[in-house]
Design a protein that fits this description.
mainly alpha; two-stranded antiparallel ribbon; 306 residues
Length: 306
């Protein structure tokens, strides 16, 4: 073996760089290694896009990188590349815009979340605990329990028929990994709702039906809600003027009330601007975070100017 010298590192070889957060951030632990590699390749191509002036009217850099080009570069099948791109979309790492017949889609590369709040539990939540969560809610609020039971069990029940172990012997490794990832996402959703029961109704109301088949979208939504609620509570503790004014009127419900307002604003915006439905979760989470930050900062500046 010939050892690599300092000179070789500095001058001779080129590398694709994969962000450390994709390996270290718990949020990305279910992202497949090949998807992380493809993200590194796509991000590297942004430099070429800049040289070729591939920048849209909003200043966003995009790629023209066909599936066929990725197949040839990596030696993966067409089906494999499509699955990788789908997973990257689910994690909010790429978005695509169609450009018409016989034209490659525009690919927009998303930022990696270097910091991400993860709520841990001392032990996993089992089926019995999930069922008890629903029973406790029904005892305290009997209205609408029968109507929401089926939907909530479908979303939160971690032993869903689709995720049963009875079929595992007939699955290949990729299919089993996908099922394990879905089960893990259902589990995390249940943990978040258990820790933040005040978000349950909001989550069930806004989560699209496809989250039943793509629970990663549902996980992004509930994580976005938790993140936004924490930011509003932090703003209240730090004396944000608008939060304090509203607290006089709405009392303990001030955080949830403001959260619902900003959530509705984000949903209204997405109704007319969301291009790729499979990106619902990532678009919602990122957009809600930005809206909360802007709302709190605007309120702080208004108070300062007065």
């Amino acid at each position: 073996m010939e050892r690599i010298s300092l000179k070789q590192v500095e001058t001779s070889e080129r590398f694709y760089r994969v962000p450390k957060a994709l390996l270290l951030n718990p949020f990305y632990k279910d992202l497949k290694p090949e998807s992380k590699l493809v993200y590194g390749i796509l991000k590297d191509r942004l430099e070429l896009s800049i040289r070729n002036n591939r920048v849209d009217e909003k200043g966003h850099v995009y790629l023209n990188f066909s599936i066929k080009s990725l197949e040839e570069l990596l030696g993966f099948s067409n089906k494999k590349i499509i699955a990788i791109k789908k997973e990257l979309k689910q994690f909010g790492l790429i978005e695509e815009e169609r450009q018409g017949l016989n034209k490659s889609n525009r690919i927009y590369v998303g930022e990696v979340e270097s910091e991400f709040e993860v709520i841990h539990r001392s032990k996993p939540m089992g089926d019995k605990e999930v069922n008890n969560l629903h029973i406790r809610k029904c005892k305290s609020d009997t209205s609408g329990c029968e109507e929401s039971t089926l939907q909530e069990v479908n979303i939160l029940h971690t032993n869903d028929t689709e995720l049963s172990d009875t079929e595992t012997n007939s699955l290949d490794e990729d299919e089993q990994n996908l099922k394990n990832s879905k089960q893990n996402s259902f589990q995390k959703i249940a943990e978040h709702i258990s820790s933040h029961p005040e978000l349950r109704d909001i989550f069930l109301e806004i989560t699209p039906q496809n989250a039943l088949n793509e629970p990663q979208a549902g996980l992004l939504i509930v994580e976005g809600l938790v993140q936004a609620e924490n930011a509003l509570e932090d703003g209240l503790k730090k004396g944000n003027s608008k939060m304090l004014e509203n607290q006089i009127i709405f009392g303990d419900q001030v955080v949830i009330r403001q959260l619902k307002i900003v959530v509705q604003e984000q949903l209204d915006y997405m109704a007319s601007h969301l291009v790729e439905p499979t990106a619902f979760g990532s678009y919602f989470k990122r957009g809600l975070k930005n809206r909360i930050v802007i709302w709190l900062e605007t309120a702080r500046l208004t108070n300062h100017l007065q």
